[in-house]
Structures are given as structure tokens and as C-alpha cells.
Amino acid sequence: xxxTAFDVVVVGGGIVGTASAHHLAKSGLDVAIVERGEIGxxxxxxxxxxxxxxxxxxxxxxxxxxxxRMWRSLESELGTDVEWVQGGNLALAADDEKLAxxxxxxxxxxxxxxxxxxxxxxxxxxxxxxxxxxxxxxxFTPSDGHANPEKVASAFADAARRSGASLFTGExxxxxxxxxxxxxxxxxxxxxxxxxxxxxxxxxxxxRLLRRIGVNLPQRVVRATVAMSSPVPEVTRAGVWADGxxxxxxxxxxxxxxxxxxxxxxxxxxVFRHLRHFLPNYWKNRALxxxxxxxxxxxxxxxxxxGSERRLHPFSIRHAVEPRPNTRRVDRGKLAxxxxxxxxxxxxxxxxxxxxxxxxxxxxxxxxxxxxxxxxVVATGFSGHGFALGPITGRLVSExxxxxxxxxxxxxxxxxxxxxxxxxxxxxxx
Length: 430
Known about the structure:
By secondary structure, this protein is of the alpha/beta class. 31% of the residues lie in helices and 24% in strands.
């Protein structure tokens, strides 16, 4: 068969892929990471940097609580600074209806032993004296934190390499190779990497890659805009989530912010492929999305042309469509921040960027070892929660490969739930 042999090939160099490689290599396995660009280049390096237990779905919360525990010692484990700050997470309620949801979720937190406080407007101002504006109250989880996404995936990759992992960057995985009902490796643009286990942690590209071997993963991709200001005096160590703006403040005083949960949706051919799975979610959250027809759809259509370079090498970084930030969302977030913290003065935006967030129909990830093909582990569809869940997901993926079972319950995160129609019921909090 030829090729270079490993125990496990991990497809994807984001936080989930590199954390998986780190734990797998630490367990003594021979591991390779395949990444079409640079480590952490895509959404793992472009997100808000929140490490939030607060507001999580009850299905996801046990994983997030354990991941938070791992984050607290991550710098020591990886031997580098990732700008971890455990300053808590503050979610502001614009009205009594949202405050009531916070009160309801506080009971969920209590059931899991997670300290979360529901605060009156007066209590918010006593704890956060620089904050202004009108709100009905807030929810505060003191043990939450944030970190710098630009550093974390690389830190995991470096730790994996020190444990013996091999990194193949700048070359895309073109096919998961299957023989006799089991994976036998990954074919890249340049070589064949043989392995008895493959981990698909390819983020927004997972559905397309898996479809080539007959595995159906309903997945959509939304474009989220983030911006960073020039330094301002310290306003809070907490991550803040409000209706008009969500932000964290870096150690150098810069504000990393977004216009709340709002995002842009670039229409692609996959929209129609998985429409029946996502249509209820589109309608329910229609106020949060703006739909666009443009470069992403054009790239999909170009990939259909027989003999085209895009069709021959669909995952190559050469064909990547760089996500464009939505400048109007940047302006809105900037104004909302200034309304919330007027003493900080008008903020100056240094740069803005966007990232592609991969999501499932129920906004719960897939973390699963498939029965067919054997040896394939899927860890994707994190729906904007992958950065925070990265450390625990890496450990659970390693457990699936090395032990065939996990220390935490992943039943609700199995891939087959979509075909079975057993999606996780939604629970809106933030």
C-alpha cells in the first residue's frame, strides 16, 4: 500500500485537532496532524476567546465544567502563556424575560455544583462600577474565564510535537482512505499517511470530507465578525455578554469584541443538502442571521466544473475563501461598548476579522467513534463552543481511540442522532 505509517492521523490543526493529538501522543501513540494551512489559522484562532460554562445546554455542561478545570492548569501543562484570565463571565439581561431565563438556568448550574449568581441592577453596578446603561439584571459565573485564541492551538501542537507527534502543515487532507469497512489512513495533496485510526476534526470542512466516504454530517457554516480596539484603561477582567456587544479585555488593554450573537450566513450548496435539518433553526433565529449570496456559492459552483483545479483539490488552501468581516457589525459593537463603558472613551478599532463557525442542527457537537467505518472518530460541529471545549474534547478523543469508551457521557453527541431524528431539544439562555 505504501505511505508513511502512524497509529492515528488527525485531520485539522485547530484546537480540537491539536488537543486530540497532544493527548494521543502523550498516551504513547504515533500521531500525525494534517492541516491545510497553518496551525490555528481558521476559527480556532479567530474566535472571541471565551471559556464559558455559563448558559451551556445541560447536555454540554458536564464537559464544559471539566474543560474549565483543565483550562486552569493548561499553561503549566503546555509550558507556555496562553493569556488565561479567570475573571468570570457576566451576561446582562436587557429585560425581565431574559432575566427569568437566567434564574431558570441558575437551577441547572446548582444541579451541577457550578456557582452562578443572578444579580440585580444595583448588584451589577457594585461589582462592575465602570458599567453604565439600563438593564434588568445579570448572571455572573465567577469561575469562567478567557484566553488568547491566537496562542492556544499552537501551544497544543508544540506540546504534541514534544511528545513525538508529526505535523504536516500546508497540505490538505483530500480523502480518508477506507478498506474493508475500516479506515486505513488519509491521502493528502502530497502523500499517503497510513493509520488504523483517523480523527476528523476539520471544523467547517468536516461534512464535505466525510461525505466522500459516505458519512452524512448535517452541518452549516456561519461567518462571525470580531474586532480589536487599541488599548484602553482596564474596565473588567470578566468576559461580558450583552445584547449589542460581547467582549473581553486583553492584558495589554485591548478590547476584543463582537456585536453579540449576530452572524452572517453565506449561502453554499450545502445549505440545500441539509435544508430539512436546519430550516426550523433558521426560522427561530432569523433575527440573528443575515443571508448572503456571493463568493462562497461561486466557489462551490466552480468546484463542480469537470477537470477544474477546485474539483481535483477541493480542500486545498489555494482555494480558500477568506471570510470577510462585516464592518456594520463592527460599528454597532463599537457603539454598544461605548454606551456600556462611557468612561473608557471612544474606542479605536485596530483591526477586524471574520471566521467560519461550523454548526449542527441542534447546536451540540459530534464527538463519536463510528461503527462504520471502524477506526474513524469524529469531533466537530461545535457551534461556536469549540475553543472552550477544546481541552476536554482532546482528552475524550484520546479515550475513544485508546480505550473505546469515555470518562464522560457522550450519548447525546453521537452522529447517528441526526438520522434517528433524536436531536437534542433546544434551550435558549443567552
